[in-house]
Amino acid sequence: MKGTILTIAEHRQNSLREVTFELLALAHELGKAQGLESVCLLLEGEEQSLEGELKGWCERVLVLKAKGLEVFNQEIWQAVILKVMGDRRPFMVLFSHTPWGMDLAPSLSVSSGYPLATDCVSVVIRDGTPLATRQIYGGKLFAEVSLRPSGTYLISLRPGSMRVENPFGLVTQIESLMGIEIPQKTKKVFKEFVDTGAGEIDISQAPFLISIGRGIGEREKLEEIKELAERMGALISCSRPIVDKNWLPKYHQVGTSGKTVKPKVYMALGISGAFQHVAGIKGSPTVIAVNKDKKAPIFRVAQYGVVEDLFKIVGALKETLGG
Amino acid sequence: MDVVVCLRRVPFTQEVDLEIDKGQRQILAENLAFVLNDWDNYALEEAISLKERTKGTVTAITVGTEEDEEVLRRALAMGADTAIRIDSEGLTLDPRNIARLLARVIRGLRFHLILTGAQSDDLNEGCVGAMLAEELGLPHASVVNKIELGEDVLEIKVELEGGIEEISTIKLPCLLTIQTGINEPRYVSVMGIRKAAKKELKVVTIEELSLDKEALVPDVYVERLFYPPETGGAEILEGDPHIVAEKILRILRERGVIS
Ligand SMILES: Cc1cc2nc3c(=O)[nH]c(=O)nc-3n(C[C@H](O)[C@H](O)[C@H](O)COP(=O)(O)OP(=O)(O)OC[C@H]3O[C@@H](n4cnc5c(N)ncnc54)[C@H](O)[C@@H]3O)c2cc1C
From the CA of B232, how many Å to the nearest CA of chain A? Predict the structure, then answer.
């Protein structure tokens, strides 16, 4: 039997998450090189039919359709994946490093006994075992990691690590999974989704954003930035710590758990450039970053960089603008 | 409610040039400052405030060296009742083994809830919490940004992507990994930490946990560390702040966002 790479599909509110296609891109790349079959496992509700969207992306979709699978539940997912892993013995299982994936993959690793590397940005296979690259210390260093020898390896991938465009033109077989018991009573029970995104301003449509991070240091300093933004006709956005501290409301936050923005210019002041932040500014053609730390990862995604105390630059900008 | 909170001390790496040691598998940590992992600070505050609301207890645990006790002292100063350090005895432990050690100790404690940070700032693995829960056979949820108390359940919010949150209930006992912003961690004074130095801090060795050091084979092994590959990167605008300001304004005008 051909070895397989099993990808766990993630979906929410009746659509597949973008990261699922990234996982399939990785599975395709590794599968081609190693002669492994790319198989996607899709757990969905009775009324759903997301498998259609997966056509061309992998060689096989295993679909389990049942009541209670509309929304991710780690206890159910774990039980089903354990069963599928036991039956099919995949060489590798790919998860997304998202809040749901962070809940699922680690506990599955413990219950299955298979080793897991989390938050990987790339994976290669060398001498029959995976070697993964991870970013550590806020992206200041990379680490190459290997896994304890095992029949099955578990990998979770950081969203945004793989480029996805079009399907790979694969002939996709859809296979329904039968005879899998779904736990009926779970200890965690889903109630509802809520959207926290809306607010007084909409940064996602702004052409010019001045974005502040933990580097502004104190709440009082916000005023200086506000003045500058007003003077320049920019809206203020921010990184997560600013919202965590309640210095600005949530609808100012850029990033995976905040908003995706696409201004013509994004000026990042005192933001280090964590991947969860940078994921929100992929659509901005011009990023200007001001940071005291010349090794800050934000300089790797910015077009222009200033290695300086942000307040010196803010002061100089105000003076130059005059008035 | 009796809460166990797991803490980790991490190096502060902003504005420092991280150096890789000769073995290529670790950073040179001698000259770095260390702090309590940000996510854990929120988990700790949540534990303390739950204790205050319910007249319970808080036990803070870390796996590490004597120097790592700093985060436990901080926890005691914030209001934790008990602190336990599992001595890492010079071993480099991967998340799976950290979870194993924590589970051994926590199994013997009285608790209703275990809290950890959603991830640590240094290695970003984001998996010790869920691994620990599974070791203990507990239900769990990750990246939680709100907890409300019920009878024998909690109502929680799990933070998802794009501003969407999931509201769920979860039965106690359980484990939650905490997201930043869930609360406002209280200020701890140096005096407070000094006073807490008198509180008891228990140290447990791996041997006392009836675990064999040899058996702690890592699931994940760091082969080598390396610096990020040079990419095109940013064009650095040089000069004194006024010259830089002029350059920035020119770019903004070119892009048509200011007149
Ligand atoms: C599940 C999850 C979701 C997340 N979602 C998001 C999200 O949506 N958005 C988001 O932003 N983060 C998100 N994060 C958090 C993310 O991992 C980082 O912790 C966060 O982005 C860091 O914000 P920061 O860059 O402002 O702070 P830091 O990383 O602390 O960086 C501050 C920077 O300011 C610089 N600095 C300090 N003082 C000055 C000065 N005077 N002048 C110039 N520079 C200075 C420092 O050198 C440093 O680079 C998420 C994390 C998790 C686990």
Answer: 8
